[in-house]
Structures are given as structure tokens and as C-alpha cells.
Amino acid sequence: MTAFDSGTRVWASLAVAPSSDLMFVVGVLLAGALAGEFIAATTRLPRVVGYTLAGCVAAALGHGVTMPLGGAAQVVCDLALGLLLFEIGCRVRLRWLRRNPGLAATSLAEALLSAVAVALALRLLNIGWQTAVACAILAMPAPAAVAGRVALELGAEGQVTQRVNVLTALNTLYAVIALVLMRAWWAAGDGGSLPQALAGLSISLLTTLGLATLLAVAVYLVARRLDLRNESAVLLLFGLVAFAIVAARALGVSTLLMPLLAGLLLRNTGERPWVWPRHFGTSGGVLVLMLFVIVGSAWTPQTLLAGGFAALALLAARCAAKTLAIVALAPAAKASWRQGLALSITMTPLSATALVMLSELLRAEPGLAAGVVPIILTSIAVLELAGPIAVQLALRLAGELPHVAQRAPRNKEGR
């Protein structure tokens, strides 16, 4: 056999037998798109529900993703969440918090009170302190992906929609930093020295900040030359953010904190508002679709049985704490009671941010897997389908949905 024949056969085998990662991506994309369009055509629910439902069906059939995330699932989650957090950061004006200190107090209160409530609830069930604290930190952030996607699809606009962006960005920031601090503290307690752990923490945070600054500067320079609403410019912007996320993964720093900080730096170091297609247009929308399918598939029947009552206690404590903090501080944050209640409902889902944080924790502390994984994955599974519906109801309660989105769709004859 000649070298040419060998090369031809190798190329043919690659062409007919695509990699498992490619098959995974194609399968996730097709299943999510079909389910989303079916839900949109037959109900008044957001397409996100269909994306998640496709993932739940895959998990029930034994084809869900495994923890910690790896391969194509890890890449999709990193890129999709990174794009969402960068976009949310670019929409958060921190000067608003200076003009409205009640909103800043609401952000701190809802994050801290929910974490304390979850930790205490799990301790009452005789769950160890390390597991309880880890679950409390993972349960702190609200779902940037769920709230952002539902609001985008339904065309929501108003005070609640804007405040969701602010609170989501801030409690994700708190949670990621708390997770890094917790890991440093445990490293010091496991035989390492505290100064050494703090030095490692400082290097990690400085590296994250440096990478975020480089991304913000790169986007700023591109924006000076190009119109970011142009399709080619959006693709370039997408590439810059994706490259920075890949670099963050290679350097071992947070792929959640880096894009969020970059967006915040970009928005708050100048007066210019940053405008481009939501979720970076079609390319970002595809990644977000796949993200919901992956998160919806991140459970097994065995996990649900193991998580069980502890997950329900976590969800009850978290929901009660966030609702209490947000509603109680609504007048101080210059919002009505109705807006406060709607905002608290939009903050209750638990989704992709917690899943990625859990994956990072398992890589660093695999010994926690037995305790933390069932509780968090069960909590995510319970809220994955209910979360988008709750956000839709909350936005309707706040009166921030367009009139056409709040009534039943008409048939072709207009009836």
C-alpha cells in the first residue's frame, strides 16, 4: 500500500467518523432547537423552557453530562457564560449604586442573607460545615443566563429588568470571590501556610484583573474603529471575548470573574454606552441554547435521590432569604413593593453559574463531591424548568412585558 493510499484512508475515516465532541455539539444543538421551537409554537412559555426540557429528557435517558464538566460541555459552558457575564457587566452602571445606596444595600443583603440561611438550614440537617458553607456559596448567585434570556425573548424593559442585571452581576462577583477565599482558607488549613495561601490568592486575583483589563482595552480599541452593531464587528468582538476566556482557562483563573470584571471596567471607565446585538447575535445565541440543554441534563435519578430533602431545604432557605431582603429594602432602593416582589422572584432560580462553580470546586476539592454534588445538582434540576417560568411571571407582575407578550397568541384568522 502506498503512502498516498494510507493518507486517503485516514482522511476518509475522519470524514465519516466525526469525533464524539462534534456529535455531542450537533446533538445538543438539534435537540434544544427543536424543543425550544415546539414550546414557543404550542405555549406562551419562553423557548428557554424547551431548551431545558431537552436536557432533562437526555438526563432521564442516561445521556446527561457528568461532573466535573469536561470536553465540549466545558467549552460551551465557559464560552456561553463568559459572553453573558461580559454583556451583563457592560450594562451595569456602578454610579447608579452611588446615587441609590438602597440598591447597593439590597445587593449585599440578599447575597449574604441567602448564604447564611442556606448554611444554617443545612447544618440543622446535620450536614458538615465544609459542605454547608460550599453549598451556601454556590447557591448565592442568581442566574444571569435565565433572567437575561427570558427578558430578551419577551422584550422586557423597565426598572425590574435593569435591577436584575445589577444584582445578578454583583452576587456573581461576591460568590466567585467567596469561593476563591474559601479554597485559600482550606488550603491553609490542610497543612499549607496562611501567608502562602494568601499569596496564591493574590496572584490569582491580580492575574484575573490583568486579563480582564486587557480584554476591556482590546474591545475599547476595536470600538474606536468599528461600529459594534455591524455583523463583522460583532464577530470580532465575539472572538476577543472567546480568546480571553480560553486564556483564563489556560492560566487557571476564573472564567466567570474575568469576563464580568472586563464588562464592568469597560462600562464604568467612560460615559459611552456599549451597544451590540444581545448575546452577540446568532453565534452567542447558539451557545446560550446549548448551555441550557447542558445544564438541564446535569443530573441523574441517583443524584436526585441522594440530594433529596437537603436540596429542598436549601431552596426554601435561599428563596425566603432573598425575598425577605429584597422586599424589605424595596422602599430604601426606591422601588415599590410590587417591584420588590417581582425582583425577588426573578432572583430565585439556580442555574448555569452554580453548575460551573461546582465544576471548578470539584477539580480543586474532589473530596467534597459526595456531599456537595447531590445537593446542588438536585437544586438545579428542581429549578431548571420552573426558573424561566417564574421569571416570566415576575416580569408580567412588574408590568414590564410588551402588551403583545402578555396576551395569548392569535391564530392566523386573528381569533
From TrEMBL:
Main localization category: membrane
GO cellular component: membrane
Domain of life according to the entry: Bacteria
One function term, GO molecular function aspect: antiporter activity
GO biological process: proton transmembrane transport
Membrane topology: Multi-pass membrane protein
InterPro entries xrefs: Cation/H_exchanger_TM (IPR006153), Na+/solute_symporter_sf (IPR038770)
Keyword annotations of the record: Membrane, Transmembrane, Transmembrane helix
Location within or outside the cell: Membrane
Domain Cation/H+ exchanger transmembrane: 33-383
PANTHER family hit by this protein: CATION_H+ EXCHANGER DOMAIN-CONTAINING PROTEIN, NA(+)/H(+) ANTIPORTER-RELATED
Protein name (Swiss-Prot/TrEMBL): Transporter (CPA2 family)
